[in-house]
Amino acid sequence: MNVLVINAGSSSLKYQLFNMDTEKILAKGNCDRIGLDGHLKHKPVSNDKPVFDSPIPLPTHAEAIAAVIAKLTSDEYGVIDCLSEINAVGHRVVHGGRKFSSSVLIDQEVIAALEDCIRLAPLHIPANLMGINACRESMPNVPMVAVFDTAFHHTIPESAYVYPIPYKYFEENNIRRYGFHGTSHRYVSALAINELGGNAEGTKIITCHLGNGASLAAIKDGMSIDTTMGVTPLEGVPMGTRSGSVDPSIVDIIAAIENCSLKDAMDVLNKKSGVLGIYGKSSDFRDIETAAGIDISNGNPKPDADVDKKAALALDVFSYQVAKFIGSYIVSLGGLDALVFTAGIGENSPYIRRAICSRLNGIGIKINETVNAVRVSEFLDITGDDSIAKVFTIPTDEELVIARDTIEIVAP
Ligand code: AMP
Predict the structure, then answer these.
(1) Which residue minimizes the CA distance to atom 17 of ligand 1?
(2) How does DSSP classify residue 16?
(3) Number of neighbouring beta carbons within 10 Å of residue 201
(4) Digit-coded pLDDT (tens) for 308-352
(5) Could you tell me if 245 and 235 are in contact, meaning their C-beta atoms sit under 8 angstroms apart?
(6) Which of 286, 302, 374 to mutate to test the pocket of ligand 1 (most atoms within 8 A of CB)?
(7) What's the CA gap between 24 and 134, in Å, rounded?
(8) For 332, how many CA atoms within 13 A lie in the half-sphere containing its CB?
(9) Tell me, what DSSP letter sits at residue 82?
């Protein structure tokens, strides 16, 4: 069976077509600048056909889906003969609110419930719905599944998800901790559990999804019991452009300083803060490490390199905050069996892994410096001698989780 995985943003749409008998990718790509001039990059993976990478008019998500289907089935760039070879579609949906605690088959009732979640994710849900509606129009007879970023965190106990604000906002307006990156935390924690012997019961794991967006999860017995992101993906550790947790009064203070609206002040926290806010020139960790005089291939300082102080500070603030949450989650879990690093930075930055773990030496977490410096795109055990917990680097695969959930629902 083939499953098309769709991740629709407001002006972009990423896709991967999986053959789920082998779990191999047949083709992948992305539509960009939807609603503007439009661009499609399509890469066949299962054959030697060429990459398509050109501007193409994409006024709406409907044209984007039509262009994707045309490429997937074309003689020149295709990997399947016709549309009927797409057996199901899995959609990444950012927010499932209080209603969705697992993936669901999409029908009219689910779409109505998603519309109810718009207030919790006003930028993301409308974009996800545009992707869903466009696919339903192009493929009316193909079953579609919604896979939620929030679902894995539905096991978080009340003590961790209720905010200490007037309770009516939870009861009447659904304001609570939801958490995000659920498919990633679920995927890498399952692999860590396998490595620990395969039995989830009794396991205590902290997963660090460190990418442009970053979040940590505390996972006990295979279930999320706390996570750093909140009602939106702004809370928690500092990120590429997002501040993470700060004193909420800062919003009011920035609005007064800039003489701007609260919404514009929130934009500062969402788009101009995090490591970009401190360093000022880039949100990309490769740039920031390089500016801080680090050799990104092994995470070591380059001899005689200039060190940009703000770049070094941005890395320090980031690793300090991540280490601080790890410490607090060891309390939440009552111990630790495995610490997992994943996503762009977690998988690829020996420097950041070392900077975080060196702050955890005092509580007995140690990494093997030699293995940590190796960069491979596969599972890596970087645990050091006498460490109280295993430390793993595990590449995440959110699209594969979406494709697996889709198959499980449409063809159990
Ligand atoms: P993601 O959102 O998971 O794609 O992660 C993107 C982040 O990973 C960006 O900040 C990249 O700079 C970072 N990243 C990717 N490769 C490396 C690397 N070799 N060293 C440091 N950071 C990296």
Answers:
(1) 348
(2) E
(3) 8
(4) 999 999 999 999 999 999 999 999 999 999 999 999 999 999 999
(5) yes
(6) 286
(7) 25
(8) 25
(9) S
